[in-house]
Amino acid sequence: MRKLSIKLNVFYVIIPLFVIGCGSSSFYSFDSTGSSANTDLATGTASGSTPGGSIGSDDATSRRKDVSINCDTEGQSTFAVFANEEAGDNSFDIAGDICLDPLEQDPRYLFIVDVSGSMEEHFDNNLGTEVAGSDPFVNNSCGRYEAIQSILDKSRTKTGELIGKAALVLFSAGINENSIDFVGIDEFQKQLTPERICLGLESTNYETAFNEAESLFQGEESSLKLAYFISDGLPTVVNNPFANLSQTFINNISIQAGQSFVASDDSIQLFQVFLGNREAEGLSILEEIAGNTAESNIRKAANASDLAQALSDFSFIDLKKENFTIRIDEINEPIGLEVLDPIENGSIPRWYWQTESLSLPSGITQFQFELSLSHPMVRPFSQTFTVNLNTIK
Known about the structure:
The protein is α+β, with helices and mostly antiparallel strands. It is built from nine helices and 20 strands.
């Protein structure tokens, strides 16, 4: 597997590189020219002949390392062309990182947080002994409180301003009043105290949580509604007067409430974190609620100290493969992405992308590659260049 590596951004275009092939004495020499453009940003062209080098690999982790970029400026991109020798001459795919330039939004943050008894030290009937809580109140704080603060800190604009509103829904069978209606983020942070959220009371009620969350969002006008759901266990009760309900019945009612919440407004993005070790059945319920967004919108946190990182891993820009347009003049058929993953990268959203396997007609030594991105939350992005390949043995 050979990697032909080029790094681009919106201000500079193509820097030629010499790249040595893995396990082979041959290599490709690049003579590259091109241009790039991004709405509302400066554009330009550049050329150079300074050689550089690296070795590519077909291993997924190595590929991501090869194209990794530090997003210190919006609208940057890297990419690398990976020659696929097993598929024959001129077969390859392209992978890269892209730093998005989000448009300014007026977001609504809704935190739906489990405060049931298992969060604190409690008696386990199955074990017949006291067990540690999933997220106890320690040193005047807890993981749930720190995780919410980490999300709000990232909501600051480039000038440091906090925009949007936030609300809180706490759920268990033993709490009725500690939730916070939508208020400005500064006011929300004043009301959100560790004593308010670092609790562990009675049973877990998903149904009430999602019903209240749906009601809160209904009164808010925003195209960006972000809901963060944290729980450490299965739902154990629902709003049903009958006793001795089966776990299957409770699960189904809880799933229906979650799905109704997501379906109530196209602007809602639901991110879910499951805390602790009851993964199999608990995660399956979250997956049912999430539907086709389960892979990107569910995380596991082994313990409370991992909650902040788990929430930070989510990307609020719901980027889809179809948001990308990829063109190579010598390939007439549409080119799709095989992989598209968000990457945690501070205040600038970064995504890893990789095309499907591609093939050029035999004898081609030059091709044009264009990458464009169109998304309502991101400034339009487009890069085009021409690459001349000369095989040297």
